[in-house]
Write a structure and sequence with these properties.
Layout (H helix, E strand, L loop, with lengths): L1 E9 L18 E12 L3 E8 L8 E8 L3 E8 H4 L9
Antiparallel strand pairs: 1-2, 1-5, 2-3, 3-4
């Protein structure tokens, strides 16, 4: 199993009546996600996550589909290497 860290940009919604910049680049939000790498193709990466206590999201297992064109950085590591057991030192 592989673990993935993904830094990506996504759209932001706002009311049209709000004063503020209309610069499209300033309106994107940068997100960071960590999850199990479930699938990947030329268009998207799918990671699996578990959420326990969050005021905005119902607890449970979730799949997040991230468009590859939105990904700024992606790191993938084998789960056993991410949390390798430390060897006991012998004296």
């Amino acid at each position: 199993m592989k673990l993935a860290y993904i830094r990506w940009k996504d759209a932001v919604a706002e009311e049209a009546g709000d004063a503020g910049t209309k610069n499209p680049q300033a309106q994107l939000v940068e997100l960071q996600e960590i999850g199990f790498l479930l699938d990947e193709n030329e268009e998207a990466v799918v990671i699996g996550m578990e959420i326990h206590n969050d005021s905005e999201v119902r607890p449970g297992r979730w799949r997040l589909h991230i468009p590859k064109v939105s990904i700024q950085e992606m790191r993938v590591v084998d789960l056993d290497k991410a949390f390798a057991r430390k060897r006991k030192k012998t004296v």
